[in-house]
Predict the structure.
Amino acid sequence: MGTRANPSPWQTGSLQLTYFRAAMSRTQRIALVIAALAVAVLAFVIAQPGDDDDGADQEATAPATQTQAETNTDGATEEAEPPGPPVTRIRMDNGSVVGGAKDIEVTRGDTVRIVVSSNAPDDIHLHGYDIEREVAPGQPASFRFKANAEGAFEIESHVAEDAGRDPLVARLVVQPS
């Protein structure tokens, strides 16, 4: 009565955690840990708030540029590209230009850029070039064109004109080249 035919693994001291062996190999466990680390790093990068205000990241990732001239691989230098055309910004408040109508002077052949923002819907028209743009709160009107006609040209508000007010938003003067 005292002897068992099959002693339990607890009694023989050979208990092994066989369910771990059957569930996953060592290589699979390592791959799972690496995948979990990759997911954690990706989640950290995605959840990290943007720090665009300090500009440190932009300086670190921006390519190095020379201010006066670029050097080619053969040692010759070429002039750096000039900055883009300046942008004239005009702000309107209830159909009136803040600070009065602007004077914009350019030379024939220049690229002209004008951005008009307003707190009320309006139609802005550049006479002489026949360019018309709609402006609305949060949706500025952008003008970009080559100044190929010399002279003085008025930029006007159709809403102000229809209301009997002074429609002049700006005056574009294109000088000969």
